[in-house]
Amino acid sequence: MNSVGIDAVAIHAGKLKLDLVExxxxxxxxxxxxxxxxxxxxxxxxxxxxxxxxxxxxxxxxRLMDRKGLEPDDIGRIDVATESAFDxxxxxxxxxxxxxxxxxxxxxxxxxKGERKFACISGTQSLDDAYNWIRAGRHRGRAALVIxxxxxxxxxxxxxxxxxxxxxxxxxxxxxxxxxxxxxxxxFGSADETDFLKPNQQFPSVDGKRSVQxxxxxxxxxxxxxxSVAEPTHPDQFRYxxxxxxxxxxxxxxxxxxxxxxxxxxxxxxxxxxxxGRQPRIEEFDDEEQFMDAVRDxxxxxxxxxxxxxxxxxxxxxxxxxxxxxxxxxxxxxHVARAxxxxxALEDDIDMTNEKLLVGSYGSGAQAEIHxxxxxxxxxxxxxxxxxxxxxxxxxxxxxxxxEQVHDVHNHDKETDFEAFTTPESxxxxxGRGPMDERx
Length: 440
Ligand code: CAA
Hints:
Blueprint: E1 4-13, E2 16-19, H1 20-28, H2 32-39, E3 43-46, H3 53-68, E4 75-81, H4 92-101, E5 112-116, H5 122-135, E6 143-152, E7 165-175, E8 180-190, E9 196-197, E10 205-206, H6 208-229, H7 248-263, H8 267-276, H9 288-303, H10 306-316, H11 323-326, H12 333-347, E11 356-363, E12 367-375, H13 379-384, H14 388-393, E13 396-397, H15 400-410
Parallel strand pairs: 2-13, 4-5, 4-6
Antiparallel strand pairs: 1-7, 1-8, 2-3, 6-7, 8-12, 9-10, 11-12
Helix pairs in contact: 1-2, 3-4, 6-7
GO molecular function: hydroxymethylglutaryl-CoA synthase activity
Protein name: Hydroxymethylglutaryl-CoA synthase
Pfam families: HMG_CoA_synt_C, HMG_CoA_synt_N
């Protein structure tokens, strides 16, 4: 069997921009630095009145199929990952297939369609499903279309409001892929958690501070589990490390945790020993609290070292370029991080062929997953075709009053009557106001 992985990717960003510095911070009476420096965000991509998870997913998928010259007959399965679904029975993939059938001559009657749910990690789980389907030889030469689409909106006044976002990532999974090959080895960290829930409600109930701790705990377990089936990880092995990015400040914490773990017992730790000492070991302490204090002190020192800063600038920072301007896309977020890093590599003329990525996915509820990817020769062509910069530049910049209106439109509990801010150009939009309306 040839290698299996992501052959191509297309992104659709919500068509409105909520500027956190100019618009949101003054309205919240907060210093803009809380968002830009603390959370690491400058803006979010917000869905226009006539956009939803279906139109965004269909637009990303159409862009992908169009660019790759694909017809419905070339696609054997369509998996949608989302945590913003509006239908508990019929999967979002059927709605998206319905949209695509309006523009292609063929149809998707032959294709296996589904919907994956496990908060943000379900985008990566859908990639796994596609990978397994191809590796099992059930694909009959066809490709899988994986679409991660979400409107990551929070109730007004919720601490998560600053991290909102909306967008879709469509990925084509094939044998002998152009973009990245997926490793068969995976590591998991999974536990029943209740810090982030959407039980039949539109906006999540979140214990934000706890959610950060749960993310870090599950990610550490996943890294250890990955090492138990693959090999010990080392920072120099990976050119980039894309993490699930609810906001870049979260990744800053995850990166520190990952780095500390990866340098343990390595020559990097030896080199740093004279500068900041060795990492505390639990067996050296009488109680866990003292140990945790020592770990915190070590991390404070580690953060300031040239070794850590250089690694962070090279391996992590480029994964955040897009997220800073679009916010959280839930299921699509880690896939945006991968695209962001490879886009930076292309801009900086870095040869990525055969380079490794360590990919850290996460979903509340909670589960983290770690796997590696190898960049393929065709990556420049695939990443060069992304039009995300143009999309972001074309967004309509909403005022705070317009933000209040459009947030109400997406809050299905409220009756509203507002027109879209943008004019559609050869794309799918909602023809009415509700999720069950037609998309044209
Ligand atoms: N200048 C510089 N930095 C500032 C600042 C200023 N003027 N004011 C505040 N900050 C810093 C704070 O020190 C803090 O940084 P550290 O965490 O490094 O200490 C950062 O800005 C954020 O400030 P607060 O902690 O005060 O912010 P908050 O409490 O209002 O909100 C949050 C933070 C609770 C995480 C909130 O954004 C939230 O609830 N988000 C939604 C949940 C979420 O995204 N959780 C992430 C893990 S779960 C997950 O990943 C799944 C998912 O997609 C949701």
